[in-house]
Amino acid sequence: MPAIGSRTLSTTPRAVPGASRNTRPTRATAPAKPPAPRPPRAAEPADVLVVGAGIVGAAIAWRAAAAGLTVTLLDPEPGDGATHAAAGMLAPAAESTPGEDAAAALHRAAADAWPAFAAELTAASGVDVGLRTSGTVLLAHDSGDRRTLHDDVARHRAAGLPTVDLDLEEAAGLAPFVGPLVTAAAHVGSDHQVDPRATHRALLAALDATGRATLVRASADRVTTVQGAVVGVVDDAGRAHRAHRTVLAAGVATTALAASLGAATAPLLPLRGVVGQTLRLQADPWLRLPTVLRGLVQGREVYVVPREPAEDGRYEIVVGATTEETPDDRRPRAGGTFALLRDARVLVPALDECVLLDVTQRARPTTPDLLPLVGESGVPGLLVAAGHHRNGVLHAPLTADAVVALLTGGTLPAVLVPADPRRFAPAPRPRRRPAPLAAAGLWASRDGAPAQR
């Protein structure tokens, strides 16, 4: 058999219209071998790969795409982590504690960023994010709670936060269903709320509208490098996702992903999960709570956060939150649910009439010093945005803009400098200098006198 591609003579003369039967046979050419298919070209790396699509990761992705960068956002279940459980309080006063000046400054700057961020996000997505700026009523139950409330009010005023004492009649005017077991109240005008689930929906819609982002529903398995620089991740199906810069915003999982770089390279990102449980109730129109309530009941913190009403007048109330130093476990315990309802109904007894819609438990990513990890990791190509503890929703706009500033050649704002992820890196060991005698080639003799070796 002739080789494929060789030229052969036809064994059967072909009849050519208009030609004599005595026409000599013509040469026939075998069909040309089709060219071998080219291997598929690897997709161009994105400008930015964001691992984790909670409210922080989604906000970073949207802001980066809006700044003109191409973005890949990777998460198997976007928004199903701590964002899904969050109540959405923007509380620079209530979330500050004595002695934590860096955190207090960060909370205030983050709260200031929210109004403009919410307006831009709603305009870009068409989704109302539920920002309500009616402040928060602080409530106390017993004498110990009153003392704590008094101290908190004094501290908020000293920090310049708008806080006023309320008598019980004034408190009832702001929160009509406050119960008779409440003995003291105050109002803090700096602490507001937003709906985290609505905000997350808005972020994904706005991100899609940019036309420069791809959402991949997969879980990152490990971080990949080339010549010491991070170039993306490999997901749990073995697929590579490449980018010029990678941002780890994967909550508690951020620590394990960073560790996948190996002990010699991985940045030290000490995150632990602090589990919290929240409840969602459905209230009828008659039980109208116009503002956020935060209370102390025998030293235990509890909050009651009303959402905007639906078309039928019913609305959602979020009650929270427990705090447990336990491994990440999404199965709520009955004891936590009971404790939240017990304390919440001290503040608002009418909650007994609500329908229990949902009990959600998630782990809050938390660092040893309670400050987040935001910025360069110390490994080329790798940034971090994680560890926001109870304040991921509050910090999301400020964190997103700070990370995008780094991605586009800028620097961190001053309030986020204490959140540098490299603060936990072990200090380099000082090089041991030779002892003076050894440096001179002399060694101490048994009697302490220098001796030539």
TrEMBL record:
Segments forming domain FAD dependent oxidoreductase: 47-405
Q: Which UniProt keywords apply?
A: Oxidoreductase, Thiamine biosynthesis
The EC number(s) given in the record are 1.4.3.19
List the Pfam families hit by this protein, alphabetically.
DAO
GO MF assignments: flavin adenine dinucleotide binding; glycine oxidase activity
UniProt enzyme class: oxidoreductase
Q: Which GO terms describe its cellular component?
A: cytoplasm
Give the metabolic or biological pathway.
Cofactor biosynthesis; thiamine diphosphate biosynthesis
Chain segments annotated as transmembrane: none
Q: Name one GO biological process term.
A: thiamine biosynthetic process
Which reaction is catalysed here? glycine + O2 + H2O = glyoxylate + H2O2 + NH4(+)
Residue ranges for the region (Disordered) are: 1-42, 421-453
Q: Where is the signal peptide?
A: none
> What InterPro entries does the entry give?
FAD-dep_OxRdtase (IPR006076), FAD/NAD-bd_sf (IPR036188), Gly_oxidase_ThiO (IPR012727)
| The organism's place on the tree of life at top rank | Bacteria
Compositionally biased tracts (Pro residues):
32-42
In this chain, composition skew of type Low complexity spans: 19-31
The keyword Oxidoreductase belongs to this UniProt entry's keyword annotation: yes
**Name of this chain's protein:** glycine oxidase
Which organism does this record belong to?
Answer: Luteimicrobium subarcticum
